[in-house]
UniProtKB/TrEMBL annotation:
Statement: the UniProt record of this protein carries the keyword Phosphoprotein: no
Alphabetic keyword roster: Bacterial microcompartment
InterPro entries: EutN_CcmL, EutN_CcmL_sf
Family as reported in the entry's similarity comment: Belongs to the CcmL/EutN family.
Protein name: Microcompartment protein CcmK/EutM
One term under GO cellular component: bacterial microcompartment
Subcellular location as annotated: Bacterial microcompartment
Top-level lineage group: Bacteria
Main location: other
Amino acid sequence: MILAKVVGHVVATQKCDELRGSNLLMITALDDDQQPLKDKTYVAVDSVGAGINDIVLAEAYFALNKDRYKAMSVVAIVEKVFRDR
């Protein structure tokens, strides 16, 4: 799982059957200080109703067709991150 920030929405006029009705979000992975990681932007299926600038927990999993696709899903909206320094 990764901690990420929602940076945009993806609009697709045609989707495979497994994604019909799903919202797609553009997310950027965050480092330990919650700063965006360069070149770590992904598209993820939103399963929790996240919005722009939300910090989310996302996971990669094989869901659509295990032989052909690897999908990423937003599974939680993060309220606060506690860290022991």
